[in-house]
């Protein structure tokens, strides 16, 4: 990839894993997901992050040197930042992660789930990153074998600390009943003005996050975060029709403190800006 916002890139490629160290200029990325797992470790100070959203998780906090996020394969993301940052990106083939799980514990690939993570810190991830960077800067003796060994350590650590393994289905824990679903929907509508976390929705449903996400999407046709965003835009439309509030006030009432970001999301989902919608 040759993104215009990336400079001073250096890349190390292994079978199933690519490391990409680069500088990234201020930008905003609406990411549709890809076929690989991504882990990005911040290498510099002075980050001015505006938002990080990965799947159902989101944060508007600035990141610090050593912080990292994980975006699993096929999971959407949104990033916006106002600083020039140095980062190390690990791009991992999911098949490699699944194969390692199978080799270690005989776990089937379909039962391995890398978890979305934002703003994490881990001394072992940092140590592994430093060793990989040393190889990027000055490959030493036995370079290929050494980096492949580092890769194995990295993957094992991901499996131990950042993966979930599908538990055996209990007779009464895998179904989201109509009553529980309605409780979740009522809860969402009651708190559209503040950040909603997957853990709290799963708690309302009385299910694990793993089964809640899958059951909700089966019943509603949307992932929980997609449904929440949809309902926020519907509420915004109703408020705009009333013509009692400013656009900034409506943005706050649907959980968005940034009016420009609210306008962008509204236009993306409705087709016109809030101002044009309210004047129709």
Describe the structure.
The protein has 280 residues and is an alpha+beta fold. It folds into two domains: 6-165, Jelly Rolls; 178-279, Homeodomain-like (Arc Repressor Mutant, subunit A, Orthogonal Bundle), CATH 1.10.10.60. The protein is built from ten helices and twelve strands. The strands form three sheets. A six-stranded antiparallel beta sheet has the order 1-2-9-4-7-11. A four-stranded antiparallel beta sheet has the order 3-8-5-6, with no helix packed on it. 24% of the residues are buried.
Identify the overall geometry: globular
Percent helix among the residues?
40-55%
CATH topology of the largest domain: Jelly Rolls
Main sheet attributes: strand count, strand direction, barrel closure: 6 strands, antiparallel
- Low-confidence region ranges: 167-173
Write the element-wise H/E pattern from the N-terminal end onward: EEEEEEEEEHEEHHEHHHHHHH
Total individual domains:
2
CATH A-level architecture of the largest domain: Sandwich
Helical segment count: 10
- Name the CATH superfamily assignment of the largest domain: Jelly Rolls
Number of DSSP E strands: 12
Our Rg estimate from Cα atoms comes to: 21 Å
Strand order of the largest sheet: 1-2-9-4-7-11
């Amino acid at each position: 990839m040759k993104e215009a916002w990336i400079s001073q890139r250096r890349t190390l490629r292994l079978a199933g894993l690519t490391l990409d160290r680069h500088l990234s200029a201020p930008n905003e990325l609406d990411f549709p997901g890809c076929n690989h797992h991504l882990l990005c470790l911040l290498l510099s100070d002075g980050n001015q992050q505006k938002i990080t959203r990965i799947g159902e998780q989101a944060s508007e906090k600035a990141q610090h040197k050593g912080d990292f996020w994980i975006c699993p394969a096929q999971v959407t993301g949104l990033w916006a930042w106002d600083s020039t940052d140095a980062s190390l990106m690990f791009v991992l083939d999911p098949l490699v992660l699944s194969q390692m799980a199978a080799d270690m514990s005989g776990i089937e690939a379909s039962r391995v789930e890398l978890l979305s993570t934002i703003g994490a810190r881990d001394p072992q991830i940092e140590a592994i990153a430093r060793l990989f960077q040393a190889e990027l800067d000055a490959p030493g003796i036995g370079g290929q074998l050494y980096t492949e060994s580092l890769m194995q350590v990295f993957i094992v650590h991901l499996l131990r600390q950042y993966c979930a393994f599908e538990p055996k289905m209990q007779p009464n824990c895998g179904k989201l009943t109509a009553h529980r679903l309605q409780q979740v929907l009522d809860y969402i509508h009651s708190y559209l003005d503040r950040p909603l976390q997957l853990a709290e929705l799963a708690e309302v449903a009385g299910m694990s996050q793993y089964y809640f996400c899958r059951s909700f999407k089966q019943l509603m046709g949307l992932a929980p975060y997609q449904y929440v965003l949809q309902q926020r835009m519907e509420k915004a439309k109703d408020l705009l029709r009333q013509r009692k509030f400013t656009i900034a006030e409506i943005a706050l009432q649907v959980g968005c403190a940034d009016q420009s970001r609210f306008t962008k999301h509204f236009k993306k989902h409705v087709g016109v800006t809030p101002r044009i919608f309210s004047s129709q």
